[in-house]
């Protein structure tokens, strides 16, 4: 684990119970790990980080397609650290009703992704852009690649950018 990753974990643990901050902290951790999702456990609800990140992406892309009621409860449970009992009390429904709604929302969001593949396309394009950034990083001017290496990198960049345009 790198120093940046350790720092991000420390931030996430220290700020875990601050409502609303969880989503951005886990996003930071995910970005610092460059797509290498770790199996850290959310101490309160037992949701694996991979599952949390997946739910975050699905909610970011398709959350507006849920009803206001579904969106509010889904967000409170997954991203604001509320328990099912707290949400049930606030909404005037049973805990089982909250659990059923969460399962229904998960199914709805996953169904949208199966049909539209927006998260998959986003992640693919993001990885392509990272590859372009890597290819354009020639490092220190004193040790820049020769013209042949630069031409090779430019061909790769052209190929990657062409595939991005096809995706769009």
List its traits:
168 residues; mainly alpha; Arc Repressor Mutant, subunit A; 2 domains; 8 helices; 71% helix; 0% strand; disordered N terminus
CATH fold descriptor of the largest domain: Arc Repressor Mutant, subunit A
Write the H/E string, N to C.
HHHHHHHH
Q: Please estimate the helix content.
A: over 70%
* CATH homologous superfamily caption of the largest domain: Winged helix-like DNA-binding domain superfamily/Winged helix DNA-binding domain
What's the domain count?
2
Major sheet size, sense and barrel closure: none
The general outline is elongated
- Average per-residue pLDDT, rounded, comes to 76
Number of strands: 0
- From the 3D coordinates, which CATH architecture of the largest domain would you assign? Orthogonal Bundle
| C-alpha Rg (nearest Å) | 20 Å
Determine the structural class based on helices, strands and strand pairing: mainly alpha
Q: Name the poorly predicted regions.
A: 1-42
CATH classification class of the largest domain: Mainly Alpha
**DSSP strand (E) fraction?**
under 5%
Q: List the total number of helices.
A: 8
Distance between the termini: 35 Å
């Amino acid at each position: 684990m790198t120093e940046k990753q350790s720092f991000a974990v420390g931030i996430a643990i220290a700020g875990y119970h601050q409502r609303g901050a969880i989503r951005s902290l886990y996003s930071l951790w995910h970005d610092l790990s460059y797509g290498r999702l770790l199996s850290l456990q959310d101490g309160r609800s037992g949701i694996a980080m991979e599952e949390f990140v997946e739910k975050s992406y699905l909610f970011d892309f398709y959350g507006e397609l849920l009803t206001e009621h579904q969106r509010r409860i889904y967000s409170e449970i997954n991203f604001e650290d509320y328990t099912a009992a707290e949400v049930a009390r606030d909404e005037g429904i049973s805990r089982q009703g909250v659990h059923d709604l969460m399962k229904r929302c998960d199914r709805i969001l996953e169904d949208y992704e199966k049909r539209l593949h927006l998260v998959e396309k986003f992640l693919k394009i993001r990885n392509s852009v990272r590859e372009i950034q890597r290819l354009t990083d020639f490092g220190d001017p004193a040790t820049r690649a020769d013209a042949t290496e630069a031409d090779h990198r430019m061909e790769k960049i052209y190929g990657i950018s062409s595939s991005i345009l096809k995706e769009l």
